[in-house]
C-alpha cells in the first residue's frame, strides 16, 4: 500500500527502493475509522497526513454552529492545517475521516529532519505545495466569480466520481448549501 | 537592490555571494511604470515575478465587467498565475503595477533549470509555496467565515500599513465592495 506513496514521489523525483525505505521510516501508518477525527479545534496541529486509501475532510464550525467543509483529501493527497502545523499552534479546524481511511502521518520535526536528510524530498514537497497553491489560487477566483450553483456545476463536470463518492450532505457543507437546497439543484439538473 | 532577494533566500537557506551571483543570472530585472500591465487575460503566462520595490496586483474581469482584485504583492513577495505559468497556458488574470515597481522575473524553463542546478533553491521555493499555500488556506476560511466588512476589519487590524498604502478603490476591488460602500464603512469606523 505504501507503494502508492512511492509512486507519488516518483511523479516528481526518482527514488530507489533503498532510499524509499529510509524515507518511509519517518512516517507512521494509521488506520482511521469512518467519522473518527484526526484533529479537533483547539488542539495543536501535530501531523501532516498523506492518504493511502479512503477520504478525509477538513472543516471548521461557524459562529452559527454549522460545519463548513473547506477541503477533501482522497488517495495521493496531503492534508493538514498548514499554518498551525508549521508553527505548532492550536488549530481552528477539524480533520475527519469521511470513509474508513488508511493514512501516513509525519510530525513537523520529523518532516524537517526528512528534508535535511533527503534533499530530493525538498523537490517533492516543493511540487506538492506548488500544485496545491496553484489550485488554491484558482479556487479563490471561483469563490469570487462563481455563484454557489456554478461551483456545484463545475464540481460535477470536473470531478464527477468525487461528487458520486462523497455523501451529499458533505458536498452541501463544502458549497455552503443546506442539504435541501443541494437536493433541489440536483432535481433541477436531472429534469 | 537585488540584495533584498539574497536576504529573502537567506531566510530559508544559506547562500554564498558566488552562488547568489550564479542564481541571479537566471533572472531579468524589469522596471514597471505605475498602471502598466505585466500580464493580460488570454496571454500565455510566461513569468514569475519577485517584487524588489513597489506593488503589483492580480485581478480578473468578471462577467459584469468589474475588476476583481485577488492578490497584492509588495516587496519580498512572488506573483504569477501559478497554474498557467507551470503549464504555459493562457491566463484568466491580469497583473498590474499599483505603484512604479522594480521586479525580478524568471520564465518557467529557466526556473526549472535553476532548480536542477541549485538544489538549495528547491528548499527556498518549497518554503515560498508552503507559506503562500498556508496563507491561502486561511484566506479560504475567511472567505467562508467572515462577512466582507469583517474581512476589511481583519485587513486594517493585521495589515494597517498596507491598507494605508494601496489606493482605496483597489482595497474595495479586493473585498468585492463598491468604493462608495467602503467609504461608508470607513466613516462608520471613524465615528
Automatic annotation (TrEMBL), chains A, B:
Residue ranges of every copy of the Cyclic nucleotide-binding domain listed in the record: 31-115
UniProt-listed InterPro entries: cNMP-bd_dom, cNMP-bd_dom_sf, RmlC-like_jellyroll
Pfam families cross-referenced by the UniProt entry: cNMP_binding
Protein name: Crp/Fnr family transcriptional regulator
Species, as recorded: Spirosoma soli
